[in-house]
Amino acid sequence: MHTEIAAIKKNDFSFYDIQKIRNDFPILKTLVHDKPLVYLDNAATTQKPQYVIDKMNYYYENYNSNVHRGVHALSQKATEAFEGARIIIKNFINALGKNEIIFTRGTTESINLVASTYGRANIKEGDEIIISTMEHHSNIVPWQMLCTEKNAKLRVIPINDNGEIIFEEFEKMINEKTKFVSIVYASNTLGTINPVKEIINLAHNYNIPVLLDAAQAINHLKIDVQQLDCDFLAFSGHKLYGPTGIGILYGKVNFLEAMHPYQGGGDMISKVTFEETTYNELPHKFEAGTPDIAGAIGLGAAIEYIEKIGLENIAHHENLLLDYATKAVSDLQGLKIIGTAKDKIGVLSFHFENVHPHDVGTFLDFEGVAIRTGHHCTQPLMRRFNIPATSRASFGMYNTIEEVDVLVHGLKKILEVFG
Amino acid sequence: MEQELRELYQQVILDHNKSPRNFRLIEHPTNHAEGYNPLCGDNITVYLSINDKGIIEDISFQGSGCAISKASASLMTSMLKGKTVAEAENIFNKFHSLVTDKLGDTPDIEDLGKLAVFAGVREFPVRVKCASLAWHTMMNALHNKNEKVVTE
After folding, report:
1. What value of ipTM does the predicted structure carry?
2. Which CATH architecture has domain B2-150?
3. Looking at beta carbons, which residues of chain A come within 8 Å of B74?
């Protein structure tokens, strides 16, 4: 065995009680094809701890009720829990106020909200919007739709072969026509952590607002929106050990105040007549209809759980797993790692010379190993690397070094069959 | 290897994946069509040369895909060379039932020859598209439909 690998193994992750954490996640006891589940698809969605499941069940079993209306006891309790979750989230990302935290269905809806409200009102013919080559489709298509509607131009920052943004190209691209920058904080396919602080600083020199797609960064990096000075930040609950169907749009209050509502309906109004409607104040202006109350409570609980373990501990743990896995697979014949940036989250994408990712995925499934195979909703990025798809292992707080060994063992078996 | 996996990845499939037959361009095909599976990014182009008696004189494919889709395309081209258009359609129908019929049904493998190795695909619903992409593309080419086959 590699000496470096042995060195990582010796470091017994003692800062972290992995067994205790694993016990908190009931799904980890599941068997797949009679083998213990090795869940390495955390960039797609993370598993939920019992604490989150219990908080959501408790709401449904004991105080299920609609929020912001009834005067009855249950409605008040539900409103308190729902708004309490908003405060937990506000504190988690250090927003200035809770009116800057908008509940959405997820990252995708958060980005669409900004494109259709701020974007529609401010982007004009001939204007330019900047994104990067490594964006998820959810941070490409809304801007593309807007550009088509307004006859504006979508510009794309190129990346180098390691999967890092070429900053000088961004510097050259930005100009007086640029009206918006929307960038992924950490890439779901490559794992690259982008230099978002530098990007924001440069954009702000031109008075251009910046949206960060933090879907993959939120469970790995401590995000302080005031320190970063981003104008918008989007993320999803389900990648943060919370439920699906709930996500967040953070926006600076001055932007949100100036923006038109996204959808019309209940909760987002203060006064309605058939002649006109006065909109509710923030954040309700952007939350038409009954929200995902249990989802918001679940997301708040997920953040409480993460903070008990410590985001820094989780990140440190995932970094060790990534280092270990990167070294362990690098000896495999014909394997190429896609995404070798200096700064990465716990994402390991790879491609075999002679084995298609889909076959890799099927074989690993029989070892109990769940990974993602495909284009990861980043088709332009696949084209940049001239491959149709990759296999991707992504790590979460509960993964172990032994699980990485199961992955590597499975990959070796595949090479024997296809060799 | 586990039984189901062994049935999916039979030696014939592994062999055709490694050295696909008729994996080339036909310069002036009478018919051709493109197929695409957006789920995994597999893409394929099938070329046919059909003479005026309705016989497939030559058939080939190009593109990229997983072992199942590549082997399926390779075996398909080997099987259909020299067949009439009507025979090709008949084999398509039999192959289609082979990979999509309910588990437990006894597959009709008459006339299918080596293609019977794809019976194992039925155990893997997400992989049925991989096995059938080349075939749907071939059918589109036969009927000279220019729209891209998309399996999802």
Report:
1. 0.87
2. Alpha-Beta Complex (3.90)
3. none
